[in-house]
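Bench log, entry 3. Co-assembly request; chain sequences pasted below exactly as received.
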Amino acid sequence: MRIGYPCINRTVECKGDRTFRLKSYSESRLVATVTDNLNCLLKMLQFNTAHDILFFRITSDLVPFASHPICQFDWQQAFLNRFQEIGEFTRSHYMRLSMHPDQFTLINSVDERVFETSVRELIYHATTLDSMGLDCSAKIQIHLGGVYGDKRKSMHRFVQRFHHLPERIKGRLVIENDDRNYTLNDCMTVYDAIGIPVVLDVFHHEVNGSGETLSQAFHRFVKTWTEEDGLPIVHYSSQRTGSRRGSHAESIDLRDFHSFLEKTKPFDFDVMLEIKDKEKSAVKAVKTAMHDDRFLRFKTE
DNA sequence: CCCTGTCAAGTCACG
DNA sequence: CGTGACTTGACAGGG
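Structure output for the full assembly:
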């Protein structure tokens, strides 16, 4: 079991997701920003290993406008050395990286053009992980997408479109149950069609479930992961007390997390904490998991 | 320097 | 049909 958090670390003094306005795009601006972002990414990874945090999501803002037509710059080549250093650091610490394109990436959109821009965006994400020399356990995680008034058809469209994706995207792509539209059961249906691993978001499963208990959900989704996909990925977050159902808590509830660890035995998996205060909660979670065999086994590896 | 409207992209709920 | 939420900060231009 690895424990991780997404994208941002407020303890290190740098920012790894700096961007700029499209209107102020220039090659030199891009180079300067990406240089800073990569430097900061390495700093965050160093922070993580120092705190036994071995799972991390890279921000999609790492290379601003990477998939936009305005960007004609060969950033992959220009930063290849830096990417490889970061990949080497990651591998040598048995760390796992992932990425999560934002809500504009829609494989199943009814609009063909939206699908095409989504493919460009996925190519950017895959290129980033490829450049670091990471194996297929470094996943790109998305949701199934919109419903467009007909869920069954929209799921079918996802399956059809998946077949048209480049292999290097297919090998990294995983789907996650969301809090409104697609449940774990829906993801499993898509898995049955194309064999794509399913990320279980336990919070979304509580808010928008398909009837399974936590244990039943684990039994189902774990089977979608093969050896080369790496350990199954779980997203964990907690409800912000007194706030809208579905909104994320400011900081981790350690009693709930402890109980989550107990309830999910003996399954082994990597857990991404989707909590507002990011690395602070991750540090706490690591302390809580310190006596868990699944976590220890990994730490001493 | 400070303030604040706005920021690449889509979908859905709501009025 | 138009607007805000999703989620949030900070870019960038104007005062």
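Chain A has twelve helices and eight strands. Residues 3-289 of chain A form a domain with the TIM Barrel fold (CATH 3.20.20.150).
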